[in-house]
Amino acid sequence: MTSKDRSYLKGLAQTEDAILSLGKSGVTPDFCKSVEEALVKRELVKINVLKNADDEPETIARMISERTRSEVVQIIGRKIVFYKKNKEKAGIVLPSESKSKKA
Fold first, then answer.
1. In the structure, what pLDDT confidence band is assigned to residue 101 with cuts at 50, 70 and 90?
2. Backbone angles phi, psi at 19, to 5 degrees
3. SS3 26
4. Gap between the Cα atoms of 49 and 78, Å rounded
């Protein structure tokens, strides 16, 4: 993912609300499954890390990213944004993809 792609996704995520919240139960397989399902439907997902979560947002972002094979777009405070392209039905066209299709 290029810096332009990341910047574009940050702009899209700015207007989105967090759709999942992670609390003291931590990054469970069920929570990762919920993130994965949301990524398939939306491609761009924002989660909220509650104050009672045991791990820091950076650690949580890395774990979820690895388990869902998604990209961490940004971490701001206790909010994390993930992106994963839907191979079958892509809804978000990144700037780097639109250039490659023109060539």
1. low
2. -100, -15
3. coil
4. 5
End-to-end CA distance of the chain: 19
* Beta sheet of 79-83, edge-to-edge order: 20-22, 44-49, 79-83, 71-76
Strands (E), 1-103: 20-22, 44-49, 71-76, 79-83
* Angle, CA 80 vertex, CA 94 and CA 10 arms, to 5°: 30
- Quickly tell me which residue has 């639109």 as its tokens: 98
Is the pTM for the entire model greater than 0.85?
Answer: yes
Beta-carbon-side half-sphere exposure of residue 45 (alpha carbons within 13 Å): 28
Q: Return the percentage of the chain with pLDDT > 70, whole number.
A: 95
Residue pLDDT, tens place only, 13-41: 999 999 999 999 989 999 999 999 999 99
Residue 25 near residue 31, CB atoms below 8 Å: yes
